[in-house]
Amino acid sequence: MTGLNPPEVPRTPASPSSAEGASPPPAGAHPRGSDRDGARPGRARRERRPLTWEEVRRRNYVERVKHEKLPFDLLDELPRLAATHYEDIPEDDILRLQWWGLYHDKPKVGTFMMRVKIPGGIVTPQQLRVIGEISRRFGRNSGEISTRQNIQIHWIELKDVPAIFDLLRQNGLTTAGACGDILRNITGCPVAGIDAGELFDTRPYVRALADFFYHNREYSDLPRKHKWTLAACPHQCNAPEIHDVGLVGTVVDGQPGFAVLVGGGLSTYPRLAEPLGVFVPPEELIDFLRALLEVWSNDLTYRANRAKARFKFMVEDHGPEAIRRRIEERLGRPLRPLAEVPRPAGRTGHLGIHPQKQEGRYYIGFPVFPGLISGDQMVAVADLAEAYGEDVRFTREQNLIITGIARADVDRVVAAMAELGFPLDVNPVRGGSIACTGNPHCNYAVGDTKPQLVRLVERLEARFGEAIADLHIHLDGCPHACGQHWVGDVGIQGTTARDERGEKIPAYDILLRGGLGPEAAIGRPVARRVPADRLGDYVERLVAFYLAERRPGESPQAFFRRHDDAQLLAVMEG
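Below the sequence we write its predicted structure tokens.
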């Protein structure tokens, strides 16, 4: 694409930060502002000497592993690893496989989860067919849609990886950087380029960034994972507020471009992103993002302690103004100021039947509850899209969209998808609720996620019906927040508790007051260590209380803010 090839960015090393880490703010905090020298107001100053690479590698095992062999270089060794017995492969190389989209399945007996990286969540029918065939041949017909618009397949064995990678490469797909300390999949609005309400088509920019960064060895050794999202959706359905970098489409003086949010993220330290206060036109995107990556990556402070090696901690420590100055110094020029980031128009999952901006064409968003899609289903959806549509899109809420359908074929596609297991006439709560991988595959999960979400939703549907259509339940099996429990209407995180005999049992924390869009906020735990067999009772009582006592048009988030923890906990406990 013209205009997106940047001039060479200077490689002058950024000066190390003077602060090494920070205690987290209260849950829900959204810090803003900084003083003139870049230190955050209210934060104790601690002068620290600059770190050296030798110290970083001594203190951080992963940094040593990356230094000894860059994980991207492992590609040439895949045939050797594939021919090696699993137990004879060095653990360091197992770690490096993450850069090629491979994580241990649980238990660690030689099978892996493979994540296919899909920029903006858009695949052609042929690409989806290939992923489905890989699932059927090598992954026991498994598949799931991630909250980063990827497809994940379990049960992959290393002996099959060279053949799988050949298939992916031949069809314009990759797993490169799907895991590891690298730029992860660039997400966006799943109906970019076809939605009548979008400000402009962002697909060329997502594609250009993916083409430049995804296989770029120079940016394959970041302090930790790094997440971008880019869209011009008026609803900001791609959740820019919880990304390291959120690029929000806007138009200034007739020119399309992007407002920038920085420092968002969830996991064990949830934080909403803050405005950088700049406008970046499309032709400057790669130049700008290279400088941002280098400012963060070259500051050794954020490599020494892996628990603090996320961009959000740098933004938290110094504030967006100081980050902006560092980027400008690296670019050698000022960035164009922008007074205000556009606010989202509301919330949408882009589900249901919608006319496209292309005359006579429609897109249809289908709930994929709870985010699971088999290889057989992928192949069948690909065949359907090829016969009647254009392409297939995956959403942040783990659903799928078929685009480019003629009006005369809409009913036929809806009926065929229902036969495949993706009916459109279901309670919308199924399309708005998400769960992480959880048991039995994830090594971090301490409880069920997807089965538990299904049980909860079915129970709530049976009692409340369409009254819960707009409810968003986000359920995670651990604190890492792949299921984004911090920003659900009802957020649920797996943990453990002790029964009356003192034995460990699965349990869940329930978090409230979180949200995305116009009411973006980080939730806070209200009920702790609820035994798994009582979770349904707690959530059902809570939802009943909300539906009975809410004001007209009041959202769950606003309702829960209106009541204190003690009252909400008493309701849940019955």
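The first strand starts at residue 102 and ends at 104.
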